[in-house]
Amino acid sequence: RSSAASDVYKRQALAGVMAMDPQVLVLDEPTAGLDPAGRENLMANIRDYHRNKKRTIILVSHSMDEIARNVDRILVLKSAHVLMSGTPAEVFARAELLSAGLDVPQVTRIAMRLREQGLAIDPAVYTVEALERELLALRRGETGC
User: Fold this and answer.
1) End-to-end CA distance of the chain
2) Could you give the CA distance from residue 139 to residue 37 in angstroms, rounded to a whole number?
3) In 20-143, which residue ranges form alpha helices assigned H by DSSP?
4) How many CB atoms sit inside 10 A of residue 76's CB?
5) How many Cα atoms occupy the beta-carbon half-sphere of 108 within 13 Å?
6) Could you tell me how far CA 50 lies from the centroid of its own chain?
7) What is the pTM of this model?
8) Kindly report the CA angle at 77 between 71 and 81, in degrees rounded to 5?
9) pLDDT tens digits for 13-54?
10) Which one, of 119, 89, 122, 92, lies nearest residue 105 by Cα?
11) CA atoms within 13 A on the CB side of 133
């Protein structure tokens, strides 16, 4: 199935479920197999639903970049046990503990590498915007830690 057809199918299936207006919506890897534009489009629909309907959405994903951009809270499980729980900033600040087969967002890896090089970058960086703020603060002589 082409990515465009997969995108349409997933959006139609999601729209059908959302039309039932569930109190809790559990989505397991909803963007798997989609191209970047399809992933963002689908996640925008999910964010809109959450914002407009005030419903709980549980998003299961191995894409920490996707998680970092779209959630308020993270629960990291390993072997059916809670390994970590918290906001994205709290979880990604402890990136070295993410040994559950997950990776951190790409921007967090960059921030970690900059910290290793001696820059005072906040360990809770998980978005491009947060890293930009940290780097601009360093440039002005401020510290983010």
Assistant:
1) 47
2) 33
3) 36-53, 64-70, 88-92, 106-116, 128-139
4) 19
5) 25
6) 15
7) 0.66
8) 140
9) 888 998 999 999 999 999 888 888 888 888 998 999 999 999
10) 92
11) 11
